[in-house]
Each structure stands twice: as structure tokens, then as C-alpha cells.
Amino acid sequence: MWRAKAIRAAGGWNSRTTVEDMDLSLRAYMAGWAGVYLSDVTVLNEARATGRAARPKTVAPGAHAVRSACVPCCM
Fold first, then answer.
1. Dihedral pair phi/psi, residue 73, rounded to 5°
2. How confident is the model at residue 57, as a pLDDT?
3. Which is more confidently placed, 31 or 72?
């Protein structure tokens, strides 16, 4: 979950990149925002109708490694 102020302070959402979340996280961090990890939060998801819909999205090679190296900035 993001604070609207943090997104605006970071320059907004940039959909022209392939790693929008990492891009925004890094820009928010550089703007002085910090993230917190809440281990006790439960998020309910809608069940997918088919097995095909449940397949993972294709991501750019190395994207997971890059995301893991970044500090999430959301609070």
C-alpha cells in the first residue's frame, strides 16, 4: 500500500518502464520516504477462474534479483 503523498513526491507512476514498482520505490527512497514490512497483515485475493490464468506473468530476466535488492518505500 502506498501513500499518495509518497507517489507524488517521487514524481508519480511511470508506466513507460518494465519495472514500475522498483522504479517508484527507488525514486521514493531517494525523495526521503521509507518503507516498513508488516508480517502480520493478511491480504485476501480473488480466486482465478482457470489454471491458465494462475500462471505467473513473464518478467524480464534478472527482474526478481533487482527487485530483491531494492528497499521498498511505501510508508
1. -120, 105
2. 57
3. 31
All structural domains of the chain with their residue ranges? 1-38+63-75
Alpha carbon of residue 18 to chain centroid? 12
- pLDDT above 70 (res 53): no
Q: Compute how many other C-beta atoms are within 10 angstroms of the C-beta atom of residue 38.
A: 7
> How big is the chain by its Cα radius of gyration, in Å?
14
pLDDT at 59: 56
The C-alpha cell that represents 70 in the structure block: 531494492
Amino acid identity at 52: R
Q: What is the DSSP string of 26-63?
A: HHHHHTT------TT-----PPPSSTGGGSPPP--TTH
With a pLDDT cut of 90, the percent of the chain lying above it is 25
DSSP letter (8 states) at residue 2: -
